[in-house]
Amino acid sequence: MPFLNSIGFFQPLYLWALSFIAVILAIHFFRKRRLSHFDFSTLRFFTSVAVRTSRLRKLRRFLQFLVRALIVAWLVMLFAGVYNRHNRLALLHNPAGAVYTWVDPSVSMEYSKEGVSVGKYANNIVDTLLAVLPSGVRHYHYDNTSAEFLHRRFFSGEEFTGGYGSSGPGDMLQEFRSQKPDDNAILIVLSDFTDKTMAEFEALEKYLKDITVIAVSVAPHDPWNYSLRTLFSQNSPNEVSFEVCAQGRGLDSVQATVTVDSMRVGEVLVSLQDGDCLQYSVELPPDIGKREGVIRLHTNDPLPMDDSDFFVLSQVQSRNVLIVGDKRENSVIGAAFSSLDKNRWWPVVKRSAHGVTAQDIRNADLIVINSLRERSGALDMLLSGSSFPEKSVILSLDPQITPSAAQAEIIRRLDKFTESISRADHENGVHPVIPDTLIEMWKGFPALVSVNSVVYSLYSGLGGDPLLKTDRAEPLISTFKDNDGRRWLVCATPLGLTKSNNFYQTGFYIPLLDRMAHYAFHGQFRPVTIWHAGISQRNPFFGRDAGADVFTNDRTMVARWETQPVVALNLPGIYSLVPDGDIQNRFAVHADPAEFRLDYRFAGNLQAENLFFYEAETFLDSIVQSENRVWSNGLWLLLSALVLVEVMLWGQGGKRKTQRAQKIDQ
Prior knowledge:
By secondary structure, the protein is an alpha/beta fold. About 25% of the residues lie in helices and about 25% in strands. It contains 13 helices and 34 strands. Strands 18-17-19-20-26-25-24-22 form an 8-stranded mixed beta sheet. A 6-stranded mixed beta sheet has the order 7-6-3-8-9-34. α6 links the parallel β8 and β9 (about 210-215). It is elongated and about 140 Å long. The two termini are about 60 Å apart. About 30% of the residues are buried.
């Protein structure tokens, strides 16, 4: 029967108590009857009265048995915890159950509706739930700070504060599973289910299949929001650009201001329609020393955290330099890069062939290989072309080195891009000759021939496109692209301390390295590192000998970056990065625009047998007017009615006995 199929029990072991009905049956129908002897004056009417009385007595005894059996059955069902299987929320009323709750800590949960954030609204829902659940139900709430489920009852009016970055459902589910909850445990997830949060849950779908999860959406109805973000185009040092977007409502003549050191230095009026995004630029005064500050949109909206953004303007982006080879011979290369603009080439790291790691290569933007006498796994990966294809490489060959396995392997790899190269010695030396001062690499160079620079030994037959030749027309520096699209810059003579040339002793040396390094990046796109609050990035100091301290704008130290593979900063703002023994660098941390997109994807693509979705209002109505409590209350009412019938039956039996006794006395 469909009705019986819908009946379930929280504690089915109590159903064994139904066997007590058999005891009642035995008492009622198998107990020994007691006979009473009476003296009668006549037996004339005895037969008809006796039959009628016997029938009534049997009926009353049967009714007593039935009522008592029902009383026992009703009591057993109350202790067993009867509930409707078709009512999903009835599981919450299991007195022996456990309820685990998690409120999404995303910053999007700070969206305010009628002065109350949706995060606070979610906390209130948890309080309402706890108020109607049986007192025996255990409640554990996930604390995002300690990353643990903690036992608690009510939130007692606590304010809600959202955080940037991932909302952490993966950590929450891992902790939930570590609790080893039994089959009576239920996980209740309260979130606005933005597209970003829902994507995280969909990635964890396999972990939701064997647990009971009730998902409650607190997403606002008819949401709207304004947002502002700094644009990362190649801004001039005197101009800051930004974009303003409107979602849900238009914006009419609202002021956007640019502030540097608490002083307003520029402003613009912003107007746009619903769904539009417009770009604006504000020119900074030339007498303002600093080039970092904050842009603010002066308006009120329910999600104000993205109404401002920070900026740090710089003409150049620093590039990390890794120098690999003999450290002594490469010391002059490191000194040359360090003497150049710190904002352009920084930091400069020197490694031996055995000391270089894959992480060093991954951290570097420019790799200079010089005086290489040994092979290493990391360099083999780099030179193979299949790994780190985006790296810019300057490779110098040293004819003074007795053919080693490392250099022989390099020459073998370059063979298909070059002619048959061989060592060439010039006793009197040759001079480098610039082919053309109009090409990008040598534009504006002071002289076509450097007579002070002399090359005594080099590899001849270098192929590719020559960028620098000797006065005997031999290629000295060539460039070519391999099959993976990587640009190679190959020098036929060493660039460090060497007897093969005297470059490091002349004024030609530093400009030569600077031009080679710039040309290695020519035509390549190098994305600017954009820091978003709460989102991990590769630690620029991972795998290096030194670290750095990170300070906020008010000089509060917030982090120490050393050996961590990835690092993150939790709040938007302007930060100072102070490497050990070096000057500080300023950079901005922004709020991730994905945090504030009003794209709610309730239910998403999740498919699980025990996963149930509710809107917040529906969930509240269901737990306040729970069908399971109606069933429980109905059982108590029926039990009271049965007890009343039992009392009446007892009363009728006693009344008849009294009447018979009175007749006998008469």
